[in-house]
């Protein structure tokens, strides 16, 4: 449990740093840089970094989808257990059982049932740890779902920024070519004007 606890701390710290990196990368690929420096400049490395963050965020989103699926199983199992505990107190003398094989905890060949007739089951239903664990699993599922939504939001923002950077690079190339052509036309016009002036004199 201690190792698992430190793994959770490490993942939380890593995603905090990753969120800061995404914020910095998003700042430098939007119009804020144009307001600061008066011109839009982006390098090939900047475009590669944007594409890298998109790919990395997509991989993290798939990982968090797996975490969400993994945390939904204990919630489902504890909900069934809580329902059996509640029904056992309502219906006196009913022998309700929970078959652990349906959750994949034990193999199909083993018959592991938890029934309300046993004294350990009654103690488990009356304990506060069952409700606390159930609520903690719900919080874990909600947190994993929120992380998936955040990853989808990050992917949308990063894709929009990458498209913005790509269009801005194309526009920058177009402006450079246009200014070169205008400069060449201006040079040709000034050269012809000088030639005419020399021929006249």
UniProtKB/TrEMBL annotation:
Interacts with OPRM1. Interacts with palmitoyltransferase ZDHHC17/HIP14; the interaction leads to palmitoylation of GPM6A. This is Neuronal membrane glycoprotein M6-a. The keyword Mitochondrion does not apply. Keywords: Membrane, Transmembrane, Transmembrane helix. GO terms for cellular component: axonal growth cone; dendritic spine; filopodium; neuronal cell body; plasma membrane. The chain crosses the membrane at residues 6-28, 49-73, 136-164. Belongs to the myelin proteolipid protein family. It is a multi-pass membrane protein.
């Amino acid at each position: 449990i201690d190792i698992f606890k430190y793994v959770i701390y490490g993942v939380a710290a890593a995603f905090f740093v990753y969120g800061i990196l995404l914020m910095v990368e998003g700042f430098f690929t939007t119009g804020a840089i144009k307001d600061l420096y008066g011109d839009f400049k982006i390098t090939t490395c900047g475009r590669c970094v944007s594409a890298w963050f998109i790919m990395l965020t997509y991989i993290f989103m798939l990982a968090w989808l797996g975490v969400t699926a993994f945390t939904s199983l204990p919630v489902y199992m504890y909900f069934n257990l809580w329902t059996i505990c509640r029904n056992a107190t309502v219906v006196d003398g009913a022998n309700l059982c929970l078959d652990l094989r349906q959750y994949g905890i034990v193999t199909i060949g083993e018959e592991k049932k938890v029934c309300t007739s046993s004294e350990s089951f009654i103690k488990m239903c009356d304990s506060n740890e069952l409700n606390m664990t159930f609520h903690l699993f719900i919080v874990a599922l909600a947190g994993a779902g929120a992380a998936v939504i955040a990853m989808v939001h990050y992917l949308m923002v990063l894709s929009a920024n990458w498209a913005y950077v790509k269009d801005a690079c194309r526009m920058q190339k177009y402006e450079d070519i246009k200014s070169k052509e205008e400069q060449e036309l201006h040079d040709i016009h000034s050269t012809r004007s000088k030639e005419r002036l020399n021929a006249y004199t």
